[in-house]
């Protein structure tokens, strides 16, 4: 069963309330860290169109909250992180010829084609199939349980993974590995995913969320401006290639980084041999 929906108190360091959610849960396990849990365990955490629209709005809210620095994304239960699109709903849409609500700019779950500003860590607590794998491919760091598997089964369903997975997999894994996955729909084991560099660590179900949250807290301890700028500077290569990405990083972020209060604070702390006192990021 899904985790019961409860009202989570919003900390006083949050400036604006988060958007209404029907299919996911939000909590704040520590200062600067957001935890988002897909709450559809009975459906293997597959997402109807409405859930994707909700998450798209949530990630925009997360990026805009000055005191939030890192997010962890997981699913309820122990079987699946996300089994992808709600195919029953999709079939009904096809049968009735109704036009589905458009996905947000970030794609499936607001994530499969998201650029965003801040990192999202995935605690993959089971299968990540279809859209679930598309989320993982565009996440920033992935921790996975031993029962996690990854696949793009669209060729088995008469559709295709067009929410961002195909080009991202090609850049991450290369031609032959990607072609193997997308033309057969086979499952990639968590051990293979680790050896391919997709998964950072394999962690027991009992420790998975704690490990991902501890990692998020480690990131949240760093300069929030530097985290945002470093992440965006690296991800620019998705769009432009190495040389252009390097120039774009300098054009877009160098001046903002050097003018930020956190840049001055980090350098002063180093000189004074003390721990930095980071300020909220308004980049």
UniProtKB/TrEMBL annotation:
InterPro entries: ClpP/crotonase-like_dom_sf, Enoyl-CoA_hydra/iso, Enoyl-CoA_hydra_C. The keyword Membrane does not apply. One of its GO terms (molecular function) is lyase activity. Keywords: Lyase. GO terms for biological process: fatty acid beta-oxidation. SUPFAM superfamilies: ClpP/crotonase (SSF52096). Gene3D superfamilies: 2-enoyl-CoA Hydratase, Chain A, domain 1 (3.90.226.10), Lyase 2-enoyl-coa Hydratase, Chain A, domain 2 (1.10.12.10). It comes from the Eukaryota. Transmembrane segments: none annotated. It holds the Pfam family ECH_1. One of its GO terms (cellular component) is mitochondrion. This is Carnitinyl-CoA dehydratase. It comes from Hyaloscypha variabilis (strain UAMH 11265 / GT02V1 / F) (Meliniomyces variabilis).
């Amino acid at each position: 069963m899904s985790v019961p929906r409860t009202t989570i108190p919003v900390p006083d360091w949050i400036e604006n309330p988060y958007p209404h959610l029907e299919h996911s849960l939000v909590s704040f396990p520590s200062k600067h860290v957001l935890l988002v849990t897909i709450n559809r365990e009975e459906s293997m955490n597959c997402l109807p169109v409405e859930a994707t629209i909700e998450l798209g709005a949530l990630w925009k809210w997360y990026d805009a909250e000055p005191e939030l620095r890192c997010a962890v994304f997981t699913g309820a239960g122990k079987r699946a992180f996300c089994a992808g699109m709600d195919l029953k709903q999709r079939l009904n849409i096809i049968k009735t010829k109704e036009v589905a609500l458009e996905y947000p700019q970030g794609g499936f779950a607001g994530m499969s084609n998201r650029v965003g500003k801040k990192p999202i860590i995935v605690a993959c607590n089971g299968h990540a199939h279809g859209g679930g794998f598309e989320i993982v491919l565009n996440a920033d760091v992935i921790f996975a349980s031993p029962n996690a598997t990854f696949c793009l089964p669209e060729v088995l369903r008469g559709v295709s993974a067009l929410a961002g997975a195909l080009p991202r997999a090609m850049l991450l894994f290369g031609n032959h590995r990607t072609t193997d996955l997308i033309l057969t729909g086979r499952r990639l084991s968590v051990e293979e995913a680790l050896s391919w560099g997709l998964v950072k660590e394999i962690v027991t179900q009992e420790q998975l969320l704690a490990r991902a949250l501890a990692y998020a807290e480690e990131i949240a301890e760093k300069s929030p401006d530097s985290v945002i700028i470093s992440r965006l500077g690296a991800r620019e290569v998705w769009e432009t290639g190495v040389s252009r990405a390097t120039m774009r990083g300098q054009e877009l972020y160098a001046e903002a980084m050097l003018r930020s209060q956190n840049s001055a604070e980090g350098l002063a702390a180093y000189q004074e041999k003390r721990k930095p006192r980071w300020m909220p990021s308004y980049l």
